[in-house]
Amino acid sequence: MAGIPKSPNHYSPIKNLERAKRRQEHVLARMEEAGFITPEEREEAAAQSLPIRRVAPEQIAPHFIEHVRQHLMTAYGEAMVYKGGLEVFTTLNVEMQKAAEEAVRNGLRQLDKRQGWRGPIGQQDVTGLAEKAAAMPPPAVREGDVLQGVVTKVAKDHVVVQAGGTAGKLAFDDMAWARRRLRGKDPSKDVTVLPSVKLLVKPGDVIEVGIKKVDREGVQFRLEQTPIVEGGLIAIDPRTGAIRAMVGGYDFARSEYNRAVLAHRQPGSAFKPIIYATALNEGLSPATLVVDAPVVYENEDPDKTWKPENYEKKFFGVISLREALTHSRNAATVRLLDKVGVRDVTDFARVLGIASPLSHDLSLALGSSSVTLQELTAAYGIFANQGMQLDPYAITMVQDNNGQMLEQKLFEPREAISKETAYLITSMMEDVIQKGTGQLAKSIERPIAGKTGTTNDYTDAWFIGYTPNLVVGVWVGFDDIRTLGETESGAHAALPIWVDFMQEVLPSLPVLPFEIPDDILFVKVDPSTGLLAEQGGQGTVEIFAKGTEPTDTAPPRTDPAEFYKLDQVLEPASGAPSPPR
């Protein structure tokens, strides 16, 4: 210990035991020279192994804490924050935060592996490595730990890895994912699939490994790779606005930038519920029909001619608003936005707390305008909270060192939208979970509503979902805005993180239903026309805000497009929007 203060990082026995041992022997020699110990005591001390406990300091919620610190610095100044003895009470739920950090780390690691292996970190001479490791004290390793190691041998079905004082086997099966070798930035193009796992590594390769299992037979590793993709998660209690968990990136030590609060990214289809909620607020219903068909927006510049397409590259004709949102139909949403009006949607978004600049053209239908994860998640929270809005906050109270109150959060709920509109859009997003793009969340057996979001070229993946007592948003993407790879949609890249988090935290919360307002009616309708089903005929039960329910009965089966002349009613206005990214 006497040798470490000169350079704690350089002489750390955890980082470099050999260097620390030499430093220890130097200190013992100086103690002998100064007459503090005898030569025999020096030799006895030098022969002892260093008792090292590899305990990583636990740092909970670093992005959240930095978020709080910045607020305090702005409000009270540096001297007060660091010397004033402030007592700060926050909204953080530690157990939820731990679950959030674990879900984001695991989700980003899995995504990174799907993109492909970037190869060994470096090379190291393995001569005498095993002998040096044998002289080290046995480290305390736990399942799940991630270490940097060196390949010392390639055997028939495994490789031997030396990670500090830990030697173990890495089975070929636990590195098979790395056959997909990423040699550039685009996992859709710059990938080579190696014919054999045995070709992946050679002796001397420095790689990253995780502790898969520790038993009597020794340590079993799995091949790991620190992801370079980033992500964010924020969990808010919609009934109060309290932020319960916040993850601003994969590793605070790597980047202090808080992507949950500061990053403005395109939400893709995660913005669509705002458009549909606007339509519901103006008197349309989940049963209102819209045309999902090809449409072309001409522009003086031919390169800017816009042809919105659906994810499946096909169209589905006349469909209800409920079906259009459930299956995230792009063409239908563009027509709906044109009918409702861009100005009405942007005004409605402001009511929901979206402060980011929004485009004033039809590309808004596909989420072309960048927003933050916090503001979009908080907007969904209004749907979860029966139309009542509470601004998200992280600090409940601040006191000075004398116990005097400096700041206290007061609940100020305000009605942003009607209970009926909130319930209607919630019901439609429940179908996203049950029948649409969010079906992975069906495994959580309680009332859930939500929406996925994917942008052009798979650059951003979103999922925002909620129960009546918790709304959670997840975003995944690269800081330099490049593709995550084909198929890495919101359902594939962001939703699994959301599900992992919710499975951990929801058991601690009561199961609550979405409350049905008094002015919601349940009516049996003909799905092909949206009108009342014939007496005794087939139909589906749909919900309506009182006063928007159909009063006419559907005629005998006919072509709904011809019946409603929807090609005329929903024909887009002239003037092309700028194409989305």
Describe what this molecule looks like in 3D:
By secondary structure, this protein is an alpha+beta fold. 28% of the residues lie in helices and 20% in strands. It folds into four domains: 1-48, no CATH class; 69-115 and 228-267 and 391-408 and 436-506, 3-Layer(aba) Sandwich (Beta-lactamase); 118-224, OB fold (Dihydrolipoamide Acetyltransferase, E2P) (Beta Barrel); 271-369 and 518-576, Beta-lactamase, CATH 3.40.710. A five-stranded mixed beta barrel has the order 3-4-5-9-8. Helix 7 crosses helix 12 (419-434).
Quick take:
With 581 residues, the chain is α+β, with helices and mostly antiparallel strands.
Instruction: Work out the radius of gyration.
Output: 29 Å
Largest sheet: 5 strands, mixed, barrel
Which overall shape is indicated by the principal axes computed on the Cα atoms?
globular
CATH architecture of the largest domain: 3-Layer(aba) Sandwich
What would the average pLDDT be, to the nearest integer?
Answer: 89
Short key terms for the protein model shown above:
581 residues; alpha+beta; Beta-lactamase; OB fold (Dihydrolipoamide Acetyltransferase, E2P); 4 domains; five-stranded mixed β-barrel; five-stranded antiparallel sheet; 15 helices; disordered C terminus
